[in-house]
Specification:
Its cofactor is [2Fe-2S] cluster. This protein is an alpha+beta fold. The chain is built from seven helices and five strands; from the N terminus they run ααααβααββββα. A five-stranded mixed β-sheet has the order 2-3-1-4-5, covered by helices on one side. A hairpin with a 5-residue loop joins β2 and β3. It is elongated, with a radius of gyration of 18 Å. The two termini are 24 Å apart.
């Protein structure tokens, strides 16, 4: 199954039970389980919410609330590349708004969206820890500091955007 296809409840059942069992002894296992689920399928499938709630003796509302509260959890698969642009104050003061605009214009999408070809998902992040070197972004887990439109274009060109 490709990551762009949403798994159905029957398809995730056995693997989900393995993930829950591997984390069941932890205090507060929901977050580690959700991270493992997202690592497995590229997102937290809606079809996993009810079985997780049952396994952890939680309500579906509680599980959904955690998934929707934390920005790192997605309810749909991300693109092949993930670009996170820092929107914190330090990066904004160093020209971050221009990087945001360039990214949205170049990709033709807004934050939280994926390009139609599935190449890039654009997400906001509120501090990458490069405050003195902003504006900053993270592409596929690699930090990039002192960005300008030309450097951003070069990064996006490398990933086929």
């Amino acid at each position: 199954m490709s990551m762009s296809e949403a798994p159905h409840a029957a398809e995730i059942g056995a693997r989900l039970r393995e993930i829950v069992a591997a984390h069941a002894r932890l205090d507060g296992p929901l977050l580690p389980i959700l991270h493992a689920v997202q690592a497995e399928w590229g997102h937290v499938p809606r079809s996993a919410i009810a079985p997780l709630a049952d396994a952890l003796n939680l309500t579906t509302a509680e599980v959904h609330g955690v998934v929707s509260f934390y920005h790192d959890f997605r309810d749909a698969p991300a693109g092949r590349h993930l670009l996170k642009v820092c929107r914190a104050e330090a990066c904004q003061a160093r020209g971050g708004r221009g990087i945001e605009d360039s990214a949205r214009d170049r990709l033709g999408i807004e934050f939280g969206e994926t390009t139609p070809d599935g190449a890039v998902t654009l997400e906001p992040v509120y501090c990458l820890g490069l405050c003195a070197c902003g504006p900053a972004a993270m592409l596929d887990g690699t930090l990039h500091a002192r960005l300008d439109s030309d450097r951003l274009d070069a990064l996006l060109a490398e990933c086929g955007a």
